[in-house]
Amino acid sequence: MTRRIALSVLALVVALLVLAVVPLGISMTDRESDSFREQTAATARTVAAAAEEHLSDNHPDTEAAEQLAATAARGDCAQVYDAHGALVLTTPCRAALPPAAVSQVLATGQQLSVQGGGRLTLALPVGDTLPPSGALVYSRSTEDLTDRLVTIWTWLGLCGFGALAAAVLVAVRLARWVGRPLADLDSAAARLGEGDLAARAAVPQGPPEVRRLAATFNAMATRTENLVHGHRAVIADVSHQLRTPLTALRLRLDLLSAEAQDDTAQELAGAQHEVARLSRLVDGLLAVARAENSVPRPGPVRVDEVVADRIDAWQPVAEERGVRLTARGATDLTAQLAAGDLEQVLDNLLANALEAVPDGGRVELVTGREPQVREVLLSVVDDGPGMDEAARAGAFRRFDTGRPSGTGLGLAIVHRLVTANGGQVALEPTPGGGLTARIRLPAGPAATRSPRRERRSARPEPADGRRTPPPA
């Protein structure tokens, strides 16, 4: 925006300068040219008057000779012709004019003017009678006129460039005065959109409208921060407070189910199942609150190492369920995201995939890169029942699940973590049947291979609180 404002102001100033300087230069050029012609004609008439006394009144040619000598001293040329076209007097230099021009002046009594070759040449009659008593050819160099015109255009050009330089300074300062507060406001809005609820726009300078806009934005950001923090606090507090009574309820049901028989045992088993489902929901709400309350601090993460870690951690679960869990794709991949977020994303996606895929199915992690846009690609591909288009459209919303055993929070947490780190996640149908979760993450700088982390052997637990069966 700063550049557009500066260029717009400069274009306006250039247009004004062109409209003002060029017509002024043309007007001054015409005035100087007319003045030069008038001066030349006046000098020529003075010489013609002296020649008339010699040609018409038969006076000696002394005065006419003196005028021609003065003409020659000025660097001009002049020739005096009598009524028959014979040359009477001349300066050492001769004016370049065809003889027919002298005959025309003697016949018509009209003045002729020819300019070219760096000289202005006039042919005018001597005397006021018709036919005239003679003709005078007067030639003057236009070098002085050219020098004056060059001086005029040089000064006009310098003034124009000076005005343009001043306009550049004014345009740049004006553009910065208007554009810098807007850039600060845009930066604050971007930080707020990325999850930094403490982002505020500091606009101490700039147009009053921009300062009012910044104040309105700050008020909106403050209210949004209060609302979000209040919402997160309520979810976290409620979820935390529910865990204790749920644990106590589960223990009581376990004690009762140990002594119950037949129908009572079945009812207690159903109650235990619902309590377990409610516990998973509470754990998922806590995970959502933690994910939304954190502001990621991106750093380089080795994607291939994290994938290998999660494959090793989930392999016992996959084998217990009869599912083939593999990984393939590019190696030496580094993404830019917060530490621990990629593990949490993969745990949720693998938990969903392993739960959806039937016995004998497969789940595959595929890695790749797109150098043109500096992105790392990561896909979790399964051959399960998949989702229809409507289910995929709402899969990232909270509590939107198509399975009675799920909480509908796992994919919501995945979406939050990926987008908070500047990435994208989408669900697509797998060719031949199934579901593919495709993730795009910003590529990070190349990193050296680090040792396998101890969490590779850790028991996986998705962020939504669903615990997987223990390894067989």
The chain-level mean pLDDT equals 81
What best-fitting shape do the alpha-carbon axes yield? rod-shaped
Kindly name the structural category: alpha+beta
| Largest β-sheet summary | 5 strands, antiparallel
**CATH architecture group name of the largest domain:** 2-Layer Sandwich
Strand content: 15-25%
Uncertain stretches of 5 or more adjacent residues = 447-459, 463-472
Described by its quaternary structure, the protein is: single chain
- Along the chain, the helix and strand elements come as HHEEHEEEHHHEHEEHEEHHEE
> What is the CA-CA span between the terminal residues?
63 Å
Helix content range: 55-70%
Question: In words, what does this structure look like?
Answer:
The protein is of the alpha+beta class and 472 residues long. It has three domains: 146 residues, Beta-Lactamase, CATH 3.30.450; 102 residues, Orthogonal Bundle (Helix Hairpins); 161 residues, Heat Shock Protein 90, CATH 3.30.565.10. 55% of the residues lie in helices and 16% in strands. It contains ten helices and twelve strands. A five-stranded antiparallel sheet has the order 2-1-5-4-3, with helices on both faces. Strand 11 and strand 12 form a beta hairpin. Helix 7 packs parallel to helix 8 and helix 8 packs antiparallel against helix 10. The longest helix is centred in the N-terminal third of the chain and has 54 residues. The chain is rod-shaped. The relative contact order is 0.08.
